[in-house]
Amino acid sequence: MATLYFLLCAILILQVGRACDVHAEEDLHTGDFLVKNYEMIPEVWNAHRYHPIRPLLSDYNNLYESRTPFTRPPLDVINPFKKYLFKSDAEEENTQAENRFILGLFNNRFPSANTWRPLANLPNRFPISYNPNFNNPYTPGSCMSPSGESGICTPGSVCSLFGGRPRSSCSFGKVCCINSITSCSGTVTLNNTYWQSPSTGVSAPSTCVLKVRPVANKVVEPLQKPICQIRLDFVSFTTAQPAAGTCTDTFTVTGTTTIAPTICGENGGQHMYLDVPSSSLTPTDVQLIFNFVPGMATRSWNIKIALLPCGATYLAPADCLQYFTAASGRVKSFNWQDVAGTATRQLNNQNYNICFRTELVSSQRATQMCLSICAVANGGDAFSITTPTGTDAATAAAAVVTATTNLANARTTLTNAQATLATAQTTLANAQTALTTAQETVTTTQATLTAAQNALVTAQAAVPVAEAALTTAQGALTNAQTTLTTAQGTLTAAQAALVTAQTDLATANAAVVDPANPTAVETAAIAAAQAVVDAAQIVVNDAQAAVTTAETAANTAQTDVNNAQTALTNAQTAVTDAQTTVDTAQIAAVNAQTAATDAQTAVDTAQTDVNNAQVAVTDAQTAVTTAQAALTAAQIAAANAVASAAALSGVGTSAIVNGVNTATCLYDFLLIAGARDSTNVEADRYCGNALNPATTPVATSVPVCISVKPFKMTYRTDGTEGAVAAGVNVLPAPADSGNVGFCLDYQEK
Ligand SMILES: *[C@@H]1O[C@H](CO)[C@@H](O)[C@H](O)[C@H]1NC(C)=O
């Protein structure tokens, strides 16, 4: 192999005009060598205090164990990048890079695109790009494309010769060469290779396996640093969603000492740090394995694979699958997304640590770290770990809202129906009153009519009587007048006899010769004549008296006739008046009857309305009763759901739910040791629907802070979203559904 190495060196010299450093291996176990040749570039934060310019380390195993930056001696050299300013260092890097270049060139087990070995430190005395957000950006010769891909500065011809993609430009006329592999097989030995899904798409079922070989072959590549850790950056990652939390499409990793969880779904932006056995001692192939089940699904990925040298300051601490090196940021469970819906996105069988480097905050090392749930914009749920299926609190709460609305509506309907009934009853009462009045009017008018009719009959009866009286009076008058005429004839005859007698008397008197001494005869004759006159006078007087009596009788009879005539006229007038009264009463009676009929109709109509309103009220009351029962049931369900959810949102590992001792936060939980809320309520385990250490029912999340360092969380889920049956030493737990995991913003303070 040594021969081969020299041969390769010779070729390399022809290609790029650089010498191979065959002596580098001799210095392999010295700290100086590591610093000078193996890019132990301190990451920026630690550099200011813990620059490992003289690591007190004797071998790679110790390097691995001692990588936690806090154990390192303080730094007294301010410029950590100083070594790169010296020509001799730069030339050593060139040499190292060139050796790798040869490895890539001749390692033709792989397609050229896969074996392109970015020339990690081709001559560049200064970094080409520096991105403070990128993990360990300061790698001499490394560069970043405008789209954020990591690459290596090489001459353009070299990049295209080995299948790299030139992107933007480096200094000294070089290009930023991006290395990628897009097949479902192959082996990666080159740092910062991008594994991308085949552009032709992924067939299903199928398996895509990429081997990662952290090579430390001292013969072929003597300056290859031993690799202790692999960092996977999921630039993009989409596979089928899990079924009830269990991945059907799977992404698994083998060959690492870190047990990576099986993941699937949406994981763009996520990363994994994977410890590997030091490649200098027990080189092991690491396999990245996609297994796709039959069925339609979007499947694409772009995974950056970084090989991290043992002893680097930027390695993740032991057993930290995820490692965050900024003072604030966002940490999400795998497959968490800000999307609406009730699909289960939480993955089963997760069991890993998430670690946070202690950062400088305002020039002081952070003393605590606070966590709060992410704000969501698209209807996502920032925290749900273990949500009981049958008593989903959110669903139950929604049912309560609906039932409350229904009850309110039913009550409104009842109120309206009752108002309608009251109105109808008032109308009925009024109509009944009107009917009574109308009926009374009918009675009254009827009585008036009868009375008038009786009066008419009476008046009519008086007319013949008056007529008879008149006839009688007229007969009496006629008789009285006849008597008067007779008496007046008698008087006239008596008066004539008197005149005759008086004439005879005068004659007798005249016949006396000597009026002084009437003779006897003469006296006798005068006396006789006188007697006749006296007698005639008596007759006249009697006749006169008879005439007077007859006249009086005639006058009386005349008065009677007049009176009878008046009485008849009065009787006839009374008949006429009575008839008028009868006619008027008759009209009033008819009108009253019509009014009574109308009133009866109104009563009937009002009664119908009352009956209908009564039915409506009864129906509305039934509806209210039903709605009330539904609300009560919904409230009970909600209370149970809240109780269950609360029992599952707390600190404990068991709670009495519906009388059964039930596991809570025992199978799926986020462990944040010593986390406290603002009121110093403390809990280690978090699950349920809220990030909250409260032991009472809660539905809201609160920020929690920890001061236990190093800052760390553990995420653990069991293998099922189904119920866990009670068993020996097994607490039962209800089934879950709709869990999505967590999204938390962290902030060191
Ligand atoms: C691989 O690249 C990263 C930068 O992405 C760098 O920090 C690391 O040192 C490189 N690994 C090796 C073995 O050079």
Bound molecules: 2-acetamido-2-deoxy-beta-D-glucopyranose
What would you give as the CATH superfamily of one domain?
Answer: Methyl-accepting chemotaxis protein
Derived from helix and strand composition plus strand pairing, the structural class reads alpha+beta
Largest sheet: 5 strands, mixed
Helix-residue proportion: 40-55%
End-to-end distance: 54 Å
Please give the number of β-strands: 27
The general outline is rod-shaped
Instruction: Name the average pLDDT.
Output: 77
The third-level CATH topology of one domain is: Helix Hairpins
Major sheet: arrangement of strands: 5-7-13-9-11
Question: What would CATH call the architecture of one domain?
Answer: Orthogonal Bundle
Low-pLDDT ranges:
1-140, 216-222, 646-652
Q: What is the subunit arrangement here? A: single chain
Q: What is the highest CATH level, the class of one domain?
A: Mainly Alpha
Organism: Daphnia pulex (Water flea)
Keywords: Coiled coil, Signal
InterPro entries: CUB_metazoa
Protein name: CUB domain-containing protein
